[in-house]
Design goal:
- The protein is an all-alpha fold.
- The relative contact order is 0.07.
- It has six helices and no strands.
- It is elongated and about 95 Å long.
- The longest helix is centred in the last third of the chain and has 28 residues.
- The termini are far apart.
- It is 60% helix and 0% strand.
- The chain has two domains: 90 residues, Cytochrome C biogenesis protein (Helicase, Ruva Protein, domain 3, Orthogonal Bundle), CATH 1.10.8; 33 residues.
Length: 160
């Protein structure tokens, strides 16, 4: 009897997880889909590389935001007009800036952002190495015993 109970609970959990799963596949609405499957495939591939400007870390293909819909429609319009993949992406980047790309290029001013992480790590490791080396070379403080006054004071404190 307990086995059936666990199976039912497991099945209910799977159903709940399926119901509350974000509908990423349903973000592209039926009226946006192009009739030509080749163009639609190109649009889907390109839209995976474009950031939703509202949701920030979602592609426009996954986002239900109105601006993401506008970007999907714009991309499909450019592809339908005969633009190559590069021309369509360049048009959108020119219009919205490089921030719209989920994977910005590592050139120009972006090079500094790409290099900042590894450079900071190397700087931190160098500072840590200098610190540890300096600590190991520092002269050890000689341990001194208590003076006669300090021993007398300690004895009085311990007696109380």
């Amino acid at each position: 009897m307990k086995q059936w109970r666990y199976m039912i609970l497991g099945l209910a959990g799977l159903m709940a997880a399926a119901l509350f799963q974000p509908p990423a596949a349903f973000a592209v609405e039926p009226d946006e889909i192009l009739a030509d499957p080749v163009l639609e495939g190109r649009a889907r591939e390109l839209s995976k590389d474009l950031r939703c400007l509202v949701c920030r870390n979602e592609s426009i293909d996954e986002s239900n935001a109105e601006l993401a819909r506008d970007l999907r429609v714009l991309l499909r319009e450019r592809l339908s007009a005969g633009d190559s993949d590069r021309e369509a992406m360049d048009f959108i980047v020119d219009r919205y800036g490089e921030y719209v790309l989920l994977r910005p290029s590592a050139s120009g001013a972006n090079w500094l952002l790409w290099a900042a992480g590894p450079l900071m790590l190397l700087a931190a490791l160098a500072i840590a190495a200098v610190y540890v080396r300096g600590r190991s070379r520092a002269p050890k403080a000689a341990e001194q015993g208590l003076s006669a006054e300090e021993q007398e004071r300690l004895r009085k404190i311990l007696e109380d």
